[in-house]
Design a protein that fits this description.
Oligomer: homodimer
Pfam families (chains A, B): HxlR
Number of domains of chain A: 1
Order of helices and strands of chain A: HHEHHEEH
Shape of chain A: globular
Organism (chains A, B): Aquimarina addita
Largest interface: A-B, 36 and 36 residues
Strand content of chain A: 5-15%
InterPro entries (chains A, B): HTH_HxlR (IPR002577), WH-like_DNA-bd_sf (IPR036388), WH_DNA-bd_sf (IPR036390)
CATH superfamily of chain A: Winged helix-like DNA-binding domain superfamily/Winged helix DNA-binding domain
Number of helices of chain A: 5
Helix content of chain A: 40-55%
CATH architecture of chain A: Orthogonal Bundle
Number of strands of chain A: 3
Distance between the termini of chain A: 31 Å
CATH topology of chain A: Arc Repressor Mutant, subunit A
Protein name (chains A, B): Winged helix-turn-helix transcriptional regulator
Strand order of the largest sheet of chain A: 1-3-2
Keywords (chains A, B): DNA-binding, Transcription, Transcription regulation
Chain lengths: ~100, ~100
DNA sequence: CGGCATCCGCGAGGATACTG
DNA sequence: CAGTATCCTCGCGGATGCCG
């Protein structure tokens, strides 16, 4: 077995999906609170900046872990939820959660 | 559910264990190659510096994911392996690996 | 309200040399 | 051989302000 296998392996891809200081907290929160608005999410997660929150949400959307729902009122309303893929990742993370709590 | 739950939850602890640019590669490698010497490990993982390798190995030893075996010859020989805890984490990571490869 | 655009600080990680 | 000791780089994330 060679090291190069790690590059491009599924584990690396999965870790890239959840990488970033705030990405796991965001996923963790969405796992327990579906369909939440941007500013509510921003208030619920203390000390994160809007910039970083927007960045990470875009990233999570790109890798298809969350989905975005937009209501064209004024002001606009944007809701975020875990996708099906995101939920199945959440199940794996909850196994990790159990592992870490002992 | 409140955000503060994330701080101190098992998931955060588990992610801290595997945090760091090189920690997952090291675990991944040890998962497939038991009982390997420091310099061999260093050669097998391209471009990592000895400093960082030593740092991460110490960290992994502190959180009890790997174990160290030292032979007092000259020059000294040091072998690293996954601990039992490390192997069970490895099993979880292989689930993540499957997740990431689709 | 839900973001971008800028600027900036800090600390993980890299390069290199040295040691028991 | 198996690490330390120093110094340095670079990019993630923080702070603030603006816009449709």
């Amino acid at each position: 077995m060679k090291y190069e296998d790690f590059e491009g392996c599924g584990l690396k891809k999965a870790l890239d999906m959840i990488s970033g200081k705030w990405t796991p907290p965001i996923l963790y929160f969405l796992f327990n609170n579906q369909d939440i608005r941007f500013n509510d999410l921003w208030r619920e997660i203390p000390r994160i900046s809007k910039k970083v929150l927007a960045e990470r949400l875009k990233h999570l959307e790109n890798v298809d872990l969350i989905s975005k729902r937009k209501v064209d009122s004024f002001p606009v309303e944007v809701y975020y939820s875990l996708s099906e893929k995101g939920k199945s990742l959440g199940d794996i993370l909850s196994v990790l959660d159990k592992f870490g709590s002992k």
